[in-house]
Amino acid sequence: MEPKVISQTLSTAARSGYWKYDGRSHFCQKQGSGNNWANGYSVHGPKHKEVIMDLVQREAEKCDRLGGFFTIMSMAGGTGSGLGAFVTQCLRDAFPSSFILNHVIWPYGTGEVIVQNYNSVLTLSHLYQSSDALLVHENDVIHKICAQLMNIKQISFRDVNQVIAHQLGSVFQPTYTAEGGLHYSRNPLGDLMEMLVPHPEFKMLGLRNIPQMPENFLAYSTFSWPGLIKHLRQMLIANAKMEEGIDWQVRPPCLGSSIPSSHSTNKPLHFNTSVANLVILRGKDMHSVDLGSFRDPSLYTSWLNPQDAFNAWKTPRSFNKYEKSAALVSNSQFLLKPLDSVVGKAWNMFASKAYIHQYTKFGIQEEDFLDSFTALEQVISSYSNL
Amino acid sequence: MTQSVVVQVGQCGNQVGCRFWDLALREHAAVNKKGIYDEALSSFFRNVDTRSGGDGPDIYKGKICSLKARALLIDMEEGVVNEILQGPLRDVFDSKQLITDVSGSGNNWAVGHKLYGCQYGENIVEKLRKTAEHCDCLQCFFIIHSMGGGTGSGLGTFVLNLLEDEFPEVYRFVTSVYPSGEDDVITSPYNSVLAMKELNEHADCVLPIENESLFEIVNKIHQMVNSGKLGSTVKQNSMITSSTGSAKTAQEKPFDAMNNIVANLLLNLTSSARFEGSLNMDLNEISMNLVPFPRLHYLVSSLTPLYTLADVNVPSRRLDQMFSDAFSRDHQLIQADPKHNLYLACALLVRGNVQLSDLRRNIERLKPSLHFVSWNQEGWKTGLCSVPPVGHSHSLLALANNTCVKPTFIELKDRFMKLYKKKAHLHHYLHIDGMEQSCFSEAISSLSDLIEEYNELDATKGGPRTDPSRLKIAV
Prior knowledge:
The structure holds two protein chains of two kinds. By secondary structure, chain A is α/β, with parallel strands linked by helices. Helix content of chain A is 43%, strand content 14%. Chain A has helices spanning 3-15, 37-61, 79-94, 116-130, 139-149, 157-172, 188-196, 215-218, 225-237, 306-309, 336-351, 356-360, 366-384, and strands at residues 68-74, 99-106, 133-138, 204-210, 274-283, 310-315, 324-332. A seven-stranded mixed beta sheet of chain A has the order 1-2-3-4-7-5-6, sandwiched between helices. In chain A, α3 (79-94) packs parallel to α4 (116-130), α4 (116-130) packs across α11 and α11 packs antiparallel against α13. Chain A is globular and about 60 Å long. By secondary structure, chain B is of the alpha/beta class. Chain B has helices at 10-31, 39-42, 79-86, 109-133, 151-166, 188-202, 211-227, 256-274, 283-290, 316-325, 356-366, 406-421, 426-430, 437-459; strands spanning 3-9, 45-48, 66-69, 71-75, 98-100, 138-146, 171-178, 205-210, 300-304, 342-352, 371-372, 380-385, 394-402. In chain B, α1 packs parallel to α3 (79-86), α4 crosses α5 and α12 (406-421) runs antiparallel to α14. The chains are: A alpha/beta, B alpha/beta. Chain A binds chain B through residues 2-4, 30-32, 34-36, 78, 109-115, 154-157, 343-345, 347-349, 351-355, 357-358, 373-374, 377-378, 380-381, 385, and chain B through 1-2, 136-137, 139, 276, 278-280, 282, 284-285, 287-294, 344-345, 355-357, 360, 363, 373-376, 378-382, 467-468, 470-473, 475.
């Protein structure tokens, strides 16, 4: 809703010389949403729906085969979160059969916005209804990656965004999605959903990359596929956010010993159970890679066939100067803890009714909050009981 | 970019406002070297062509022709406003932006609110509309007034009500100067309490200022300058306290230094909305983040550094000192001690050469010494504006929603009750049309309720923290 950032984005893209945005495909207003989700969702949304959806329609008509929508937004503020949730809903109504993947930036634990937990709870609960999947990036995690892996001393938002863009590229750059396939995937969004979202109750996707390091280190580093895969797998099961400080003690549970009634209590502490995983390999010799360790049934929930729960995409082309690189998109308990923390903090605030009047002013009532809390507690419960 | 309109009411309001416009012009002059009318300028100033006589249409692009303040000047005496109109700032104000009378309000809230409100209401609304029409996205009104007298207190809060009726979507920030304990206006407790009820009900944010605190701060700075302890490192004419070198040529008035502090508060408050920065903080974000309950919208402010040191490359220790000072008692603009009271929320608005990491480090450092309410342990809002105040390398404005405002209100209540018990001076108020005794009882109960709300929050401090139990999901 603020013109400053949009005009900057347009000119930065145009300056690259390689590409630019369509000069007409943008929309902005003079006044932001003031960190208020309700302002974005209930005021700006309905007011500008027509213009925004016209722009979307025009863009969609340029596609000969529309696969779906990839919506990038944050959830702490007012516009990205509130208007973002509203637009996602409009997309769902206008394109009922298209895929919608929401890329959500999870705010720093403390910092820019005091009401960020409220805004996050409202955003997530609404997206859970209209989106097909939520691909999440946590600012705190990316910040750590910048500091510890990329060796950046004074981290700016530009650095953070750079890492996020790299991670997204590692998933959505063209790949062969079928074993021995000859064609690049024609519908990466659809393929991603098909492989990772087998049940509407489970739509939270996390992303892990390996290796990640400053560009000038790459010339002096060599990687072997078995090494990368071994680390990536341990990052998965131990829920490590990056390749440093992985807990190697975490082991998959023994399947035979689990009794259905005490299923969840029987699991080793800190073990991250998955619904489904997708590994993307980029670089030479990727055909020789043994991914058997990811097919281990003990990694997954019991109600899905392990053959269906794991997939791999491959391409011999190296990505972004990394000779070999692997990315993992995981529908697992990755986001259980951050989600639980956000809901818990928001609930504490809600119990004292603090800041609620700021939302009712724009038409979001206490009951709406309660609905959102209920929806997310349900998600937390579902993921906890995997 | 959005615009703001300043409404300055009464003697104090107009004197502070005058300092504000002077400093705002200097600030923009320092940043805007080319003399182009830019977005930053447009937030408080119109650019008009006055050559054709009368006021020409607004010019949105290109060179600065003639800057006009987006302001409305209201006083029921002519003195201060006339002085402004004869002074160096005369060209900034348009005669259509003035409302004056000759007889004053006699330190009587009822005269300002009821009598003049009734008499000038339509005129004020018309002028406000006119001013608003010149804005393409009006976001905020700033009222500047004092609480103790008649015009600022009475008519100022009347204007506040008008704004709510006429422009319900536009934010209302009120800068209120509270009288000191030994105020020479005998009826100031009445006026203040009657005004408080209006502020409670109709303002989005109130920035309370106490004359006593301004006075102490000014004294402290003079002492430091004169003692020579800081040697040549103190710029005597730094913008915060001195008007030397500014448009003002007359001898400095005793209140000028104090008014400058308030003017600077407003400049820093709006800096992030006017200039660029890596972490913008828009004005509508301030009330959203700092006001958890509708009536608890009193924000205690502190400005640091009060004087700036001459060297440009500031070592980290001094930068950290700036953050520490912002929380100390003697830097607050009211007589209050936020450190030993309960924070509901806190905002840090930083200007100049300060990095995100400096901000985060200082929050981590200071957090253990501050008490935050249990449901808002991470109640920090931050803004980084890259343009520092003129003559400084950096500055910090801290806004605290803190129960430390309570003593100021309790003292006001006590002084009110002392008079009210004896029914002293009541007849001066009650003979004004529309003024009844119930106005007094309602005003004092509004203030008592407010104090009680702070009491309830204070009661949660230090007790065992029990988180409310979460919703259970039946599996």
